[in-house]
Design a protein that fits this description.
Layout lengths: L2 E2 L18 E2 L64 H25 L2 H6 L4 H25 L8 E2 L6 H23 L5 H24 L15 H8 L3 E3 L15 E3 L67 E6 L5 E2 L5 E2 L9 E6 L2 E6 L1 E4 L2 E5 L15 E7 L17 E8 L2
Antiparallel strand pairs: 1-2, 3-4, 5-6, 6-12, 7-8, 9-10, 9-13, 11-12, 13-14
The protein binds 2-acetamido-2-deoxy-beta-D-glucopyranose (NAG) (7 copies).
């Protein structure tokens, strides 16, 4: 529960209209406080709050924690893992290096690939392109910081295989890539042994979060449609990233994370439609079969929101956009098919998808502070559907919104944002849902 607490002694009330007391967000809505202005009474106490005593006048400087650095020149785990796919600090940062390198290349690629006329048609004027250029340069800094943490064994820049052919699809892909980059870090940050590393990563992931929001704006999506950003296990991030990495140089440090089979969302809402409820139900409106592939942008002019006129239907790049027809909604029937494990993915096709789960029974929806389930109806070999559930974080804030992870699971395990990784052994397949 989050409270806004107002501690006022009754006798010290300066403003006659002040009613005081705890405000529970959402109970009766919140309009404006009855009084705004300076304090005009007399303080009943002064100074910072004191403990029963202090142990010393200042804190003695100490050497860094033994966990402060994670140089591992060998680049492979040196200790037995506590459980499969869970060598934490080194491997988390190594994953971060893979992420920063794809972003460095990806943000530059579209700028080099598309013409001024194509950018203008997508609503991205030269000032916007300069911003993308700046974000591309931010990635140089992020890749440098993370590589420096790992030293010799840092993974290297690879060759990537991108799914987009238009400016719009490029921007859409970037809002998906930065979603898994951002959520992947929120997932492991609080579990790092090295708080020193966590400090620096916090400062880079705050920037990545802004990039994700800016790319949503450039894709004509609502910039923020959640109250809390979701954190994901590393293996989810790696599952989403690996299919876009094609070649890596000889000797590139390998990762210890799991690659789950891909869950394809056959009617994943097409962000370029005026009415995303009309998205085809056969998967044909994603540009390809890979997990984070963007929506097709080549719709007919009647269907496309890119040049549609008016609030609620136009989805050109903007600071904020409304949609009269939502991208998705509770009660929507969502159709899936999923891959069998054993597919070769990632750098040089050298990682193999796997699962330790039993038969899929549930669809798990991970977003905000929540992991919520709906029952899966299996309709064939690796095919099925579910109904998008309704559920709220607080007040009327729907859990399912934005760019988020969904998965098939063999059980409806109770997990929290802090122990979400415990779900991994139960995941049959993982997908990226474009809610909104
Ligand atoms: C998703 O977020 C948008 C923007 O805040 C809001 O208009 C919409 O109602 C939300 N959708 C659901 C299903 O909660
Ligand atoms: C990936 O393949 C390329 C080309 O075949 C090769 O040069 C490179 O060493 C390979 N990388 C790894 C990490 O095996
Ligand atoms: C979405 O489409 C389905 C099937 O065409 C229809 O039954 C449903 O009412 C539509 N929902 C919305 C919110 O438009
Ligand atoms: C969009 O592109 C796909 C793949 O090339 C094609 O199948 C489809 O017909 C195109 N749609 C339109 C409206 O041009
Ligand atoms: C935008 O949508 C919100 C609800 O999500 C609504 O309250 C608001 O009136 C809409 N704004 C416009 C300009 O249509
Ligand atoms: C979502 O998470 C919040 C915070 O833990 C919790 O209060 C709320 O009940 C959860 N909602 C659902 C539907 O589980
Ligand atoms: C996750 O943490 C919550 C809160 O501590 C606990 O109730 C739950 O059992 C944990 N789940 C698993 C699978 O460990």
């Amino acid at each position: 529960m989050h409270y806004l607490l107002f501690f006022f002694h009754a006798g010290a009330l300066a403003a006659p209209a002040f009613t005081g007391g705890p405000v529970i967000i959402g109970e009766n809505g919140y309009t404006s406080a009855p009084y705004h202005g300076p304090y005009t009474g007399t303080p009943t106490t002064t100074g910072a709050v004191m403990a029963p005593g202090t142990l010393a006048p200042s804190i003695e400087p100490k050497p860094p924690n033994p966990t402060a650095t994670y140089y591992n020149a060998a680049g492979v785990p040196q200790q037995p893992m506590p459980a499969p796919y869970s060598d934490w600090d080194f491997e988390s940062i190594a994953l971060g290096v893979y992420q920063e390198y794809i972003e460095l290349d990806l943000f530059h690629d579209g700028l080099a690939r598309f013409t001024d006329a194509e950018f203008t048609a997508a609503g991205l004027d030269p000032e916007v392109r300069s911003l993308i250029q700046f974000m591309a340069n931010q990635e140089t800094g992020h890749a440098t910081l993370l590589s420096n943490m790992l030293g010799e064994a840092a993974p290297k820049q690879c060759v990537y295989d991108y799914p987009y052919t238009t400016v719009r699809e490029w921007v859409d892909f970037m809002q998906r890539v930065t979603r898994y980059g951002e959520s992947g870090v929120w997932g492991f940050l609080a579990h790092l042994d090295s708080r020193e590393v966590a400090q620096l990563l916090s400062q880079s992931i705050a920037t990545e979060a802004r990039q994700q929001m800016v790319f949503r704006q450039m894709a004509g999506l609502t910039p923020m449609d959640v109250w809390f950003e979701n954190g994901w296990p590393q293996s989810w991030q790696w599952t989403m990233l690996a299919p876009y990495v094609s070649y890596c140089p000889e000797g590139t440090t390998r990762l210890a994370w799991q690659n789950f089979p891909t869950l394809r969302i056959l009617n994943n809402p097409n962000i370029n439609r005026v009415d995303a409820n009309n998205t085809a139900q056969d998967g044909s409106e994603a540009v390809g079969d890979r997990i984070a592939d963007p929506s097709r942008s080549n719709l007919t002019s009647g269907e496309s929101c890119i040049n549609a006129q008016g609030v609620g239907v136009n989805c050109q790049a903007a600071i904020a956009r409304n949609r009269t027809q939502p991208l998705s909604y509770p009660g929507k029937r969502v159709f899936f098919d999923w891959e069998a494990p054993g597919q070769a993915v990632g750098p040089n096709n050298s990682y193999i998808t796997s699962t330790t789960a039993g038969e899929p029974k549930f669809v798990a929806w991970s977003n905000q502070l929540n992991l919520t389930y709906s029952p899966l109806t299996v309709t064939g070999a690796q095919a099925g559907w579910t109904t998008q559930p309704e559920g709220f974080v607080y007040d009327d804030e729907g859990i399912i919104n934005g760019t988020m992870a969904v998965m098939l699971t063999d059980t409806d395990l109770f997990v929290t944002p802090f122990n979400l990784t415990q779900l991994n052994p139960h995941i049959v397949a993982l997908g990226l849902y474009q809610a909104g």
